[in-house]
């Protein structure tokens, strides 16, 4: 029965509060700022008829201090406060680089590596074809080596970021293995 947030995303949240005022008896002043940077405070006035408001244009992975001040011309209501932390931005891998390509292996790296990724899945298989293998890579790492490949073959490599929220984002690249040495 007090000020709280719902529908939290990386850049917005909805505030809900109890009905303390009415259109006739006053209005609310809403102040909010990043907890780490109170100087960036923003203020908004809301009609006394409202009991909810969406705040947008926020920074991701940031904790906001929110103060709701009921400005009543009838009663004194103490300010209500809450803290809300926005979610991490879910960004997909923006680039996938293939390097150190040999006849039987190549190196795959990707960027960026946001904190909100639990793990990466590297899927690879020869083109054309539908035999796909998967490598699981820890979310803190940004590269892996793919081995036991066929020489002189084009592979499709897909890097999928698996976020804490359960969402997944993918990006693909093509890689070619070198021709094998004679006698392989």
TrEMBL record:
Keyword terms of this UniProt record: Glycoprotein, Repeat, Secreted, Signal
Matches recorded under Pfam families: fn3
InterPro entries cross-referenced by the UniProt entry: ECM_Regulatory_Proteins, FN3_dom, FN3_sf, Ig-like_fold
Gene3D superfamilies per record: Immunoglobulins
Domain Fibronectin type-III intervals: 1-90, 92-180
Protein location: Secreted, Extracellular space
CDD domains, alphabetized: FN3
Keyword Endoplasmic reticulum: no
Cellular component terms per the entry's GO annotation: extracellular region
Domain of life: Eukaryota
Full protein name: VWA1 protein
Species of origin: Mystacornis crossleyi
Gene: Vwa1
